[in-house]
Specification:
The protein is mostly helical. The protein has 20 helices and eight strands.
């Protein structure tokens, strides 16, 4: 007998017994769960000055999810949405202004950033191949939580200033967004508790529409007073239309450069750890060990190739979504078919420029308010990674590794730029921190971490033991 749900229902592994109408609604619920965070990534990247397309993002979230399900033998009920881990990389590429990047058009910079994402996705495939050859335990000894935890913490801390900048355009609207998210997440029930990020955008957006009609204003990046809402792009957009990678293929396809690769690719280390944590969480929720069957190598290949495919055509990196794991917990419907329905919905919505323009009309202050929570949550996930895996900071070896990672990540705020021949290569602070942490973990004696693939219920990041 499985554990009883609060309604007394048993887990459902075949949604067909519920009937097609309920299956369609369950798929819609999964789409709502992933939607707010998935479309927020291109909105935030656009705030950095890079024209990442909402349509392209939705399209490759759906296609990437379907490909992931094929790779994992249709067994794993996971949704692949936009990864927030790479936001720091996008911001770093947008800020590059040396060598070939000096005066470069933002659209071209985006192509180079996406080239780095293609390589990052291929790192998943390389790790998957190594895991298949030598076993997961040997590989994970080089990437223990004492390394990955502080790196994930740094990703959130590095993004924090942009949250404050965006929120400062209209503080009352940003605070409203934060309040809605907190109330929904802490006191919400049912579906409301599952989609706090989406509600944190929708509710303040409706308030902003009313306030704008009454003459409310905001500050733009130059500090000038502007109307709170601008619907001109929505009015000019068509209801249906192709994604930019179809209409402007040459202007969307990824480009490759050593600097952008070194900015984006190392982030894959943290993203892969997030992937392993999500697989553990989904396994614990469903009661099946997906790390063993279909295997961690298969889930990594699915996630990695989906990421490379998205990057190749101008989209952001993909990652398995914890929001959809929350839906699994709530609904007790564990059938991957309902997740594939959500993927189909995402692909369909990606063919509407008017929908993308409507999303793009969201005031910067709302994005800032949501970012306050999301960026902090990224760092909190890193803390959770350290706590759940019982990293012993009374051990001076672990303390030194974490200390060096944090100082490198915060101290080298502008990175390090050097020349190799005629090429200018920039190592970002996150890349420097990752390299330092992995090297110290490999060199310093006293390594006492042992990775374990066993999933312990209630401990989403239970990777092993110290």
């Amino acid at each position: 007998m499985g554990k009883k749900h609060i309604t007394g229902s048993e887990p459902i592994y075949d949604a067909r017994r519920l009937g097609l109408p309920r299956m369609l609604i369950l798929g819609l619920q999964h789409m709502f769960a992933m939607f707010g965070a998935t479309v927020l990534v291109p909105i935030l990247v656009q705030g950095y000055g890079l024209p990442l397309s909402i349509q392209t993002t939705l399209f490759f979230a759906g296609i990437g999810t379907l490909f992931f399900h094929v790779c994992t033998k249709m067994k794993v009920p996971a949704f692949l949405g936009s990864s927030f881990a790479y936001l720091g990389g996008f911001a770093a590429v947008a800020a590059l202004d040396t060598g070939k990047y000096a005066g470069m058009d933002p659209a071209v910079k985006l192509q180079y950033a996406c080239g780095g994402i293609v390589v990052a996705g291929l790192l998943y495939v390389i790790l998957a191949a190594i895991i298949k050859l030598v076993g997961v335990k040997r590989v994970m000894r080089f990437l223990p939580p004492v390394v990955t935890g502080p790196i994930i913490i740094l990703i959130g801390l590095n993004l924090a200033p942009s949250a404050v900048t965006n929120a400062s355009s209209c503080w009352w609207l940003a605070i409203l967004s934060i309040a809605v998210i907190v109330v929904c997440n802490i006191w919400g029930r049912g579906m409301i508790k599952i989609i706090p990020i989406l509600l944190g955008v929708v509710v303040p957006y409706l308030v902003a529409v009313i306030a704008s009609a009454m003459g409310a204003t905001a500050l733009n990046a130059a500090g000038e007073v502007v109307p709170l809402m601008d619907f001109s792009s929505v009015a000019a957009s068509r209801i249906l239309g192709f994604q930019p990678f179809i209409t402007d293929f040459g202007g969307s396809i990824a480009k490759f450069d050593v600097t952008s690769i070194l900015v984006m690719a190392p982030i894959a280390i943290a993203a892969m750890m997030e992937h392993i944590g999500d697989m553990s969480a989904i396994s614990a929720t469903v009661g099946q060990n997906f790390i063993q069957d279909p295997g961690l190598h298969r889930t990594l290949i699915g996630d990695g190739i989906a990421t490379s495919l998205a990057g190749l055509f101008g989209g952001p990196a993909n990652t398995t979504y914890g929001e959809n794991t929350g839906v699994l917990v709530l609904s007790r419907v564990y059938d991957p078919k309902v997740v594939r329905l959500a993927a189909l919905y995402a692909v369909i919505l990606s063919f509407s420029p008017a929908f993308a323009a409507l999303v793009n009309s969201i005031p910067t202050a709302i994005i800032g308010g949501v970012s306050f929570i999301l960026y902090g949550m990224i760092s909190a996930i890193g803390v959770r990674n350290v706590v759940e895996n019982r990293v012993d900071f009374t051990n001076s070896r672990n303390l030194i590794i974490a200390a060096v990672i944090l100082v490198c990540g915060l101290g080298f705020s502008s990175g390090i730029t050097f020349s190799i021949g005629e090429a200018h290569v920039t190592l970002t602070n996150l890349a420097i921190a990752a390299i330092a942490g992995i090297a110290l973990n490999a060199i310093l004696p006293g390594k006492d971490y042992e990775f374990g693939a066993d999933v312990t219920e209630g401990r989403s990041g239970d990777f092993g033991r110290y």
